[in-house]
Amino acid sequence: SFLFPPSPLRKPAKHWTASTLAEKTVLAMAEEGMTARDLEMLPFGVAVPLRQALDDCRNDPPLKWPANAYRLVGREDLANLLNIDCTPSSSLPSERQGAGEIASAALRLGAVAAATGTTAGPTSGALVEGEEDKEALARDYGDIVDGTALVLKQSILRFGKDKRVKEVCRLLRSNRRIRMHKPPAHAVGGAGEEEGSALQTWKQQHLLWRIYRVLALPAGRAMLTLGSITPDLTEALPIPHFELRGSLPPKDIPVSLDSEHTEISRILQGYGGIAGMLEWPGFHNGVAVGLRVSMPDDTGGGIAAAASRDDILRTWVCYNRPRRLNHTHAGFLMALGLRGHLAALSPSDLYWYLSKEHDPTILAFLIGMAAGKAGTMDVRVSKMLCLRVPALLPPAFADYAFSAVTQTAALVGIGLLYRGSAHRLMTELLLTEIGNRPLDERWADQGPEAYCLAAGMGLGLVCLCKGANAIGLADLQIKDRLRQYMNGGPANESEDGVQRPESNASCVKEGRMINVDVTAPGATLALGLMYLMSNDEVIAGYLAVPDTHFALDFVRPDFIMLRVLSKGLVLWSKVRPSRAWVSNQVPPIFEESIQNPPNELPSLKSILEGKSEEKRKERKSRPGEDVDLEAIRQGYCYIIAGACLAIGFRFAGTASAAAKETIQYYLRQFLDLRKAKASAADSASRPASPAAMKHSEELGRLKSGGRVLVARGVLEACVAAACTALGVVMAGTGHLSSLRLLRAARTTIDAHTSFGTHQMVHMAIGLLFLGGGRLTLASNPEAIAALVCAFFPRFAMNPKDNRYYLQALRHLYVLAVEPRCIQCVDVDTGAPCYVPLHLTLENDQDAKIIDRPAPSPIPLTPTLPSPPIPHQISSKSHQDRTTGRGMEVVAPCLIPPLQSILSLEIISPRFWPIRLSLRKSPTLQAALQRQNLVIYVKRKAAYLHYRQDPRGLRTLEERIAGIADPRTKAFIDRFGSRQNFENSGYSREGSRSSNSGGFIGVGGTLDEFCSEAAGECVAQEKEGMISTYLAMRVLAETLSNQKDSLSLWNFRLALTFYREHRRPSMTKISRVKRLETKAKRGNIESNRVGLLGMDFLGAVEAKIDTFFSQKSFTRAMIEHLHEISGLKVDEKIDETIAKQTGKKVSSALFGCYLEFYNLPGAIDLQTGIGKISKLASMLRGKDVTSREQQFMPLVAIIWPDATILAKMKLAKHLAYLKFI
Over the chain, what is the mean pLDDT? Predict the structure, then answer.
């Protein structure tokens, strides 16, 4: 305040907070526009107090400062975090770099296409002109085109040094040659033409089965690469192709699908050729490309800036438009809609697309636009959806031919658009459409099942969580009608009292009864979503599993899984992640019918293996009981699978260890049963051989003759459901044991493994690495509803199957994705880095929400001065460190939702501390969400990043290599040798050794002084003080050559500041308490209380005082007092001093003498000596010493503002004068 008095022209900023003198000083400097460069131009005496104020505020500045104040104190990290105008782009450098790589790959693809006359789209697998060039291009650029290479680069920090992400990228790539196994002996056996025919049939069959798996990969790859790139809006995104050719070991003989082969020709004819088989996989491939896009943040900039961004986005979307609409581009458009980017298209663009009457494109717009406007009831989107629902059109348009796919998509779109609104008209429409039956043959390919299921989904979304609380819907009797749709009965009349005509499109004559095979799935799902999280026991009773054999005969076994799932959605808080809870979902009739031993919890395998033939006959011989054991076994499997799904949705995105272990337990059993079933079937189809017989003997340990008494299709559905549940729970964690289990689930490939099973297993793998480990799933009602719709347990039998479930709905999980991976980026270099964090959570339960399965790559506890701890921390040790309301993690990692975090703090001594109170500052939460949980941190100069020095064992010479300031770097390179650092005591990280001198001395050579000063300044984060140390050293060594007193004035100013103004904060007690507080948080600060230590200042002062204690300066001062006062000097003393005095002192040095001791000026001396002369009669001393002691009180009274040293000098020199 004494340096910057308040100016009447400057208006204070009310939003700036300052509670201490140092903070006020920094704000004054910021208002004046001062920079670090300006401080270097100031004299070091003036700069020292200002630098000290900056240093005092640097560790913990207030969170309501302007950006230039943060830059002034060296906290650019806080300036980027807390100021909107300084917020960098939300995309990381790797994402921006990836856009350039994709652009170059796209140009390369275009060059090859132009040279060969081919396209870069999906290939049929046949060798065409230029195919070799395309294969080489896929080998060189394939991982860049499909986005896996960029994800691998982005996840280096997230998953440490193992290769799990590389393995996942390999599993999910669809543009690489298919590797086939060596043909078995029975396929090679035979002779002549028979041998060639058998081998050819085997190759074609196994290649087709593996092609099904390749076509299922894009759905999982879409999850892996979700939001991984900010594209170059001047380039089109390339589409990765499908590689449909295989290679047969050991010589990698190429194998292609032979359309002339009898069986392959029959299968392809059902698809309409290879192009027809690639239609919906191409749609998923387009979605995977579109979901990679992460557009820049649209917040800020005003309406004009938002309109400009929309124009650019619209131009880019139109630029990606192909010459002819196809399924791939439709998937691309749907992906943009799910991310909310289709809103940039103009009405004319929508008309152009919709007028082409391309069903996949219309589907993409219906679902994409509705998802982008979910819950808003937007009028424009509502009109577009209602136009595709015949029930909402006037009678004149009733005969207008809408495809079944677009009608189904429109119902789901209505549910999304009116989500949670309980809109009367839409609710009544969707409730009616569940029981509606198609009247013509346009449903011949798709069937009414998917339409009724879409109506149930839409009804559940419109009335999401409303249940009995929906206003104005009581007269519809929704729950009773849904129950009727579930259990069957006579069909109700239409609303106008006219009965509906019988259906002419159904394969089964339904008559006047409700076809529960069609209506039950949608009604069950609608009931679960309507009463989601309500814990309503009455509704749960509607969804109960049949507990009698009679009731079981009226429920399909696969519908039991839907009932268990919906019941779990309703009884949300009662779902427990334990095997006991899963067992409680099994009614007693299932155990009694299989006759388990009493008081024994049966395993899944023991129930499914069946019992002996005698017990089966005995059970059938009981009067009144005709037990369908096949239905019992299937029902049991579906109950377990439904319970796993319920646990998965209940603990979605939480990485709950209990839920993970429970699901993994049942998944392993399903996989064992599937493997046994597949092996038994494969063994039965082969000719008897010694190896096969031995394999049969091993399986003979199973009961009932080694047969697994459950249909293979049931096991495939249960495996897919369990894999999905595991992926939903562990979303984004990259859990290693879960990855191993899911990788084992994908290895079974045969005729019984459907396309839908492959798709769900690979989607589970993609969920495990959602967004490359940067994203996870939310658990709010809207997110859970989206997950239930996306992972509905009805799986496609082949790539073109949309009969029971619309494949495009698999991507609705995007609506449940949220970024919860916190990342730390070095503000100086822009590179991501490891940073230990401490989270304070709302309650103890939240501390157990996120289990970090991936081992921590660095120690959580600071390694100084204690010995280093193990390099990696397992999830168990992490749980041990989760105590009370706190949780320690290492970024980058997944964290609980921001709403449950009270505060976040950096606890590493290598970075400047940041403490964010999220609960008290909603603005801070919004800033973190806007930056995708990216926190910019600032590394201290004396430390390396954890990747470079995990345990803090590198020497200071190695650690200072990263200093950014070139001048400081050059100085340290000149004087900072390893030997000098070791001699100076700063070779260890951040602290002096116990045998060091304790402070920088002014003795020794210049190299030794510079080395010690460099070591201290770097270790204590005060590199700017090196010049001050050198200036004081030069002052102490060149006193005899001083031409003016400016340097001594600067030194005295710095000395006075630390001696008088800093003394209260430099007490030992306060220093010890502060160090103890920091040590408890793991943030041990340097052992200093100021930029300049009093030991060093005292040493410099002592050397200067020694120089000025020469008799020549005493003689000069006496003569100066004689000239001022006119008093004579004692003759005896004068002769003694004259003999001891050498060369006469120059006026410049005498001025330095006066300045150093801060002696009064000539006028003040003259006035004061005059006052002393009046009291001369009181001076009785005869010698100089006694007279000096008598002068001390008088000097203290006359010059009260003088320093102690100045008073002593004045008393000593006045004693030489004759006052009497």
Answer: 78
